Amino acid sequence: MKKVAISILLTAALLTACGKSGVSMDHSGMTKEASSSQAGNVQAQFKLSSDKTLPNQDTTITIKIQDKNGKAIDKFDTVHEKQMHFIIVSKDLSFFNHIHPDYKGNGEFTVTTQFPTAGEFKVIADITPTGMGAMNKSQWITVQGNAPAPKAIEPDAILTKVVDGKEVTLSVDHLMANMELNLNFNIKNAQSKQPITDLQPYLGAVGHVVILTQDAENYLHVHPADEKASGPDAKFMTTFPHSGVYKIWGQFQQNGKVFTVPFVVKVP
Fold first, then answer.
1. Which of 22, 37, 197, 201 could be cross-linked to 17 through a Cys-Cys bond (beta carbons 3.0 to 4.6 Å apart)?
2. 8-state DSSP, 201
3. Interior/surface letters 237-263, b for 16+ CB within 10 angstroms, e for the rest
4. Where is pLDDT greater, at 201 or 6?
């Protein structure tokens, strides 16, 4: 079957940030966001295993990382235990998946996944080419069929959600654009209301947070201020680049199971 190759060359990095000045924390210290020139020298080819991608069927995605001349970039830093974090979201941001492609060498990663419905999805490859800093490359893809009606992206009136028996409350010290701020996820048992203090490391940290603007054009992958925390609080620092509506996904692990908690906020 014929394969379709989708290539994208970004002239500047989208936002990949944790904390002040777009800095992302890893175990070895601080990994800075790639400069515009560094990111502009990197391109990603996204190739799907079928020319007709269908919902609820296995689809293998191959991602080739190259320089602007088409030469493979073959060395990547390991950030939170992985050389690539791969995010998939639906256009209305109602679907979210955070997976990790296998590195095959010579700049090539592969991952097999399924899309839940027809419609448009954005795939985001979050990488740190060695010596360049953190960056991400993305592409919209279309899954064939009758797409469901999009769900509205509405800011949450109350920032408390119950997921998998956990009651999670998000608090923000000052919700403003262009200012470093603290995000705190407080996690308790939804029935007993007792604090949960036995969170397990997920990819080497107490949790991970992914943030997207409403149009999915600005992306932030945020790591915790205290990676070794175990609850009930998980604290993160970030900066929203501009006013608008953002969707936030917090991911944590307890008893060997990862749970994902979504919130929508409006940043003044």
1. 22
2. P
3. bbbbbeeebbbbbbbbbbeeeebebbb
4. 201
E strand intervals along 128-243: 135-143, 160-163, 166-172, 181-189, 208-213, 219-222, 233-238
H or E element in which residue 195 lies: none
Report how far residue 137's alpha carbon sits from residue 111's, in angstroms, rounded to the nearest whole number.
Answer: 16
Mean pLDDT of all residues belonging to the chain: 88
Q: What is the DSSP string of 12-41?
A: S------SGGGEEEETTEEEEBPPHHHHHT
Nearest to 65 by CA among 132, 151, 120, 117: 132
pLDDT at res. 94 = 98
232 phi and psi angles, rounded to 5 deg: -75, -10
Please, is 145 exposed, middle or buried when counting C-beta atoms within 10 Å of its C-beta (0-12, 13-18, 19+)?
A: middle
Question: pLDDT digit string (tens) for 46-90?
Answer: 999 988 999 999 999 999 999 999 999 999 999 999 999 999 999
As a dihedral over the C-alpha atoms of residue 233, residue 239, residue 242, residue 244, rounded to 10 degrees, the angle is -10
* Backbone torsions φ then ψ of 46, nearest 5 degrees: -110, 120
39 φ/ψ angles, rounded to the nearest 5 degrees: -65, -35
- Per residue in 210-226, pLDDT tens? 999 999 999 998 889 99
- Return the number of other C-beta atoms located less than 10 Å from residue 157's C-beta: 6
